[in-house]
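Consider the tokenized backbone below.
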């Protein structure tokens, strides 16, 4: 009976490509979170002080959203 080795080393550059793709995905996630916070801050900044008070925020809290 012949023995067959099933574990092989990854091809040259495969790990580097994997890490690049992984970091690209992380950058996309960070950008998406930043953009969501930006859109939220922009929408909240358009509200009046009375509307902000109705939802329990003040004008100074708008800058803290998303940090």
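A designed sequence for it:
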């Amino acid at each position: 009976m012949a023995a067959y080795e099933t574990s092989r080393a990854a091809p040259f550059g495969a790990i580097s490509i994997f890490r690049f793709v992984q970091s690209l995905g992380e950058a996309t996630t960070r950008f998406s979170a930043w953009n969501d916070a930006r859109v939220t801050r922009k929408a909240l900044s358009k509200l009046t002080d009375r509307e902000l008070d109705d939802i329990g925020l003040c004008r100074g809290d708008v800058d803290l959203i998303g940090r």
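Residues 25-64 form one domain.
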